[in-house]
């Protein structure tokens, strides 16, 4: 049996925060605002994974009202979601994801993101796709007010 889920997340760009994407610190003049490390890519991935098995969303599992998750490393939260998925008897077939950001250029960091995500999901890196695009200076991502990410994951029953 197969299950598919999609995820979406968005965060505002602000000064004074690190920019973390796919568990990689990306040099930039701004970072993403959020209760945790605000890793927009990993948040979209977690929502896709939880959605595939109708397990709610990341706000339900890691509420921003809980001080335990203040400044949390999203890769550790992802590891928790992986445990939950595995406890239901599923494993990742593949993951396709996309970051939407005007700047910085993300190409030099994509392979490290793929490697981090694959390691956390316990799969080969060739099952993980991370892409980046701009919106040609349109919308809130184009004006560099924020970033967003999309993810689609396919699971199979073990």
From TrEMBL:
<dbReference type="GO" id="GO:0019288">
    <property type="term" value="P:isopentenyl diphosphate biosynthetic process, methylerythritol 4-phosphate pathway"/>
</dbReference>
<feature type="site" description="Transition state stabilizer">
    <location>
        <position position="35"/>
    </location>
</feature>
<feature type="binding site">
    <location>
        <begin position="57"/>
        <end position="59"/>
    </location>
    <ligand>
        <name>4-CDP-2-C-methyl-D-erythritol 2-phosphate</name>
    </ligand>
</feature>
<feature type="domain" description="2-C-methyl-D-erythritol 2,4-cyclodiphosphate synthase">
    <location>
        <begin position="3"/>
        <end position="155"/>
    </location>
</feature>
<dbReference type="GO" id="GO:0046872">
    <property type="term" value="F:metal ion binding"/>
</dbReference>
<keyword id="KW-0456">Lyase</keyword>
<feature type="binding site">
    <location>
        <position position="9"/>
    </location>
    <ligand>
        <name>a divalent metal cation</name>
    </ligand>
</feature>
<feature type="binding site">
    <location>
        <begin position="35"/>
        <end position="36"/>
    </location>
    <ligand>
        <name>4-CDP-2-C-methyl-D-erythritol 2-phosphate</name>
    </ligand>
</feature>
<keyword id="KW-0479">Metal-binding</keyword>
<feature type="binding site">
    <location>
        <position position="43"/>
    </location>
    <ligand>
        <name>a divalent metal cation</name>
    </ligand>
</feature>
<feature type="binding site">
    <location>
        <position position="140"/>
    </location>
    <ligand>
        <name>4-CDP-2-C-methyl-D-erythritol 2-phosphate</name>
    </ligand>
</feature>
<comment type="function">
    <text>Involved in the biosynthesis of isopentenyl diphosphate (IPP) and dimethylallyl diphosphate (DMAPP), two major building blocks of isoprenoid compounds. Catalyzes the conversion of 4-diphosphocytidyl-2-C-methyl-D-erythritol 2-phosphate (CDP-ME2P) to 2-C-methyl-D-erythritol 2,4-cyclodiphosphate (ME-CPP) with a corresponding release of cytidine 5-monophosphate (CMP).</text>
</comment>
<comment type="subunit">
    <text>Homotrimer.</text>
</comment>
<dbReference type="GO" id="GO:0016114">
    <property type="term" value="P:terpenoid biosynthetic process"/>
</dbReference>
<feature type="binding site">
    <location>
        <begin position="62"/>
        <end position="66"/>
    </location>
    <ligand>
        <name>4-CDP-2-C-methyl-D-erythritol 2-phosphate</name>
    </ligand>
</feature>
<dbReference type="InterPro" id="IPR003526">
    <property type="entry name" value="MECDP_synthase"/>
</dbReference>
<keyword id="KW-0414">Isoprene biosynthesis</keyword>
<dbReference type="GO" id="GO:0008685">
    <property type="term" value="F:2-C-methyl-D-erythritol 2,4-cyclodiphosphate synthase activity"/>
</dbReference>
<comment type="pathway">
    <text>Isoprenoid biosynthesis; isopentenyl diphosphate biosynthesis via DXP pathway; isopentenyl diphosphate from 1-deoxy-D-xylulose 5-phosphate: step 4/6.</text>
</comment>
<dbReference type="InterPro" id="IPR036571">
    <property type="entry name" value="MECDP_synthase_sf"/>
</dbReference>
<feature type="binding site">
    <location>
        <position position="11"/>
    </location>
    <ligand>
        <name>a divalent metal cation</name>
    </ligand>
</feature>
<protein>
    <recommendedName>
        <fullName>2-C-methyl-D-erythritol 2,4-cyclodiphosphate synthase</fullName>
        <ecNumber>4.6.1.12</ecNumber>
    </recommendedName>
</protein>
<dbReference type="Pfam" id="PF02542">
    <property type="entry name" value="YgbB"/>
</dbReference>
<feature type="binding site">
    <location>
        <begin position="133"/>
        <end position="136"/>
    </location>
    <ligand>
        <name>4-CDP-2-C-methyl-D-erythritol 2-phosphate</name>
    </ligand>
</feature>
<feature type="binding site">
    <location>
        <begin position="9"/>
        <end position="11"/>
    </location>
    <ligand>
        <name>4-CDP-2-C-methyl-D-erythritol 2-phosphate</name>
    </ligand>
</feature>
<comment type="similarity">
    <text>Belongs to the IspF family.</text>
</comment>
<feature type="site" description="Transition state stabilizer">
    <location>
        <position position="134"/>
    </location>
</feature>
<dbReference type="InterPro" id="IPR020555">
    <property type="entry name" value="MECDP_synthase_CS"/>
</dbReference>
């Amino acid at each position: 049996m197969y299950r598919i889920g999609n995820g979406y997340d968005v965060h505002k760009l602000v000064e004074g925060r690190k920019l973390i994407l796919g568990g990689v610190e990306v040099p930039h003049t701004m970072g993403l605002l959020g209760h945790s490390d605000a890793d927009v890519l990993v948040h979209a991935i977690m929502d896709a994974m939880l959605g595939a098995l109708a397990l709610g969303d990341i706000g339900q599992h890691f509420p921003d009202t809980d001080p335990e998750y203040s400044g949390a490393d999203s890769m550790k939260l992802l590891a928790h979601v992986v445990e939950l998925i595995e406890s239901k008897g599923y494993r990742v077939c593949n993951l396709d994801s996309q970051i939407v950001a005007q700047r910085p250029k993300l190409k030099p960091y994509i392979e490290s993101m793929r490697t981090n995500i694959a390691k956390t999901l316990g799969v080969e890196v060739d099952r993980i796709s991370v892409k980046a695009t701009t919106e040609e200076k349109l919308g809130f991502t184009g004006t560099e007010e924020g970033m967003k990410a999309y993810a689609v994951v396919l699971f199979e029953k073990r």
